[in-house]
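Suppose you are handed only two things: the residues of a chain and a line of SMILES describing flavin mononucleotide. What would the bound structure be? This form records exactly that question and the answer produced for it, so the two can be stored side by side and reused later without any lookup.

QUESTION INPUTS
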Amino acid sequence: MAETMNSPASNGDTFSGAAPKPKKEFILNAFVMNTPGHLAPGLWRHPRNNTDQYKKLSFWTDLAQLLDKANFHAMFVADTLGPYDVYKGPANVVPALSSGAQYPVNDPLYLVPAMASVTKNLIFGVTASLTYNQPYALARRLSTVDHLAEGRLAWNIVTSYLDSAARNHGLHEQIPHDERYAIAHEYMEVVYKLWEGSFRDDAVLADRDTGVYIAEDGVRQILHKGKYFEVPGPHFCEPSPQRTPFLFQAGVSEAGNGFGGKHGEAIFIGGQTPEVTRNTVESIRMVAQSEGRDPEHIKVIVGINVIVAATNDEAWQKRENHLKYADQEGALALFGGWTGVDLSGYSDDEDFNLTDSLRIRSIVRRWSSTVPGTENLPWTKRRIVEYLSVGGLGAKVIGSPTTVADELERWAEISGVDGFNLAHITNPGTFEDIIEFLLPELQRRGRFRTSVEKEGAAAREVFLGAGQKRLPEDHPGSKYKWSAGEKVPRYQVEEQKEVPGSEAQAERQPVV
Ligand SMILES: Cc1cc2nc3c(=O)[nH]c(=O)nc-3n(C[C@H](O)[C@H](O)[C@H](O)COP(=O)(O)O)c2cc1C
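ANSWER OUTPUT
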């Protein structure tokens, strides 16, 4: 299995016959979580690993400085809102305990101001669920942090997928999948109105001579009344540098892609091969186009796990060494949470490709059949544990700097992704290796930036270009913008037109 994780085509010559294309620099993010065992259950006790220090601010500020200095684009912090309790369940957290498999998990948003204060350019992409946070409150928390981070905040919008999260947030079971996305669309309308439409662009004067902090006609209620939300507003925070924080999104279903193609500005996807990933990339860009957006305004970033060392042999040895610390119970707890499947009733060596349960066969096959080079191998519990323990479900790239750089270039060429979300196995460890071995090779090939375009740029500027702090005009949130000189935001004028005789009333609406 070992050699098959990297494609045999990754020899650097793959495209030598084609006309040379200008090389695009990759976006590189570090993928982390505020927990001892993100995607490497059991590895917290590896001698190189310090993830048990996740509760200490210095653990995070050290990492942020390391990534900032190396010119990483962003730190992407995952988050969930309940434990992985399906395996040996229902509602059993015990298998996740020894390994710290995404349990316990601290809130990621609190980390950002401290990390921003010791860095200049790194962007912080923080996951927050819109299924379990009221829009008015979340809009306020995100604005506060966008202020403190001086615009270096991105929000990873998720609708959440764990029953344990639903049970602990007042629901007996999860809201059905597609309805979560229907709610999410209306939720975004509410937060766009708060962020973009309740303070006019020139509302905040902070004029010491006149004693006026905010112009009295510069703030309006949003008066949102929809199917799921009723929020009068106005927003409780003054506009932050980006107003709407740069929007990350991760979703793979049709409804998820529909949501991402409409609202997402950087989309995070999974995928085992660049060929399959290409379909996802194309589908996201098509949705964006159908929503009237420039598909190139959306950055698509694939999750990948890299183990790199001076030579191929050393990289593979590193993987073997990591596996010694892998925790089977923790890996199966993660698998249970991600898929909803409890594998506890099966022996270690049963091949799930042949198992009696149609449901389990199809779930395991759907994922395992895409892992390159394993088509004729049995997919047993043992193999699932081995695969998951060193970087989770994502694709694995293992080898020397040349091998890994070749493979990332192949991924980008075939799939059309803009960059990579790099998972870690140990921290410190994985990112230091990437910085020491891989980045110089990528930089030599013109594939990774050696400096930033603009010091202290906002998140949106880093991903879309200097000067682009606010939502681009083709983004659906832009229609809620309230420009200087407009008495009433355009969207409210449009909404009022739908209610006969109420245009004058819109102008008379009390400011707050
Ligand atoms: C790279 C990546 C990162 C993700 N991070 C999170 C996360 O931190 N929290 C979360 O609840 N879901 C996360 N997800 C899951 C997605 O939000 C989504 O639930 C999942 O991809 C299933 O997609 P669907 O809802 O469109 O079916 C992530 C997915 C991907 C591909």
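WHAT STANDS OUT: The first strand starts at residue 27 and ends at 33. The mean pLDDT is 91.
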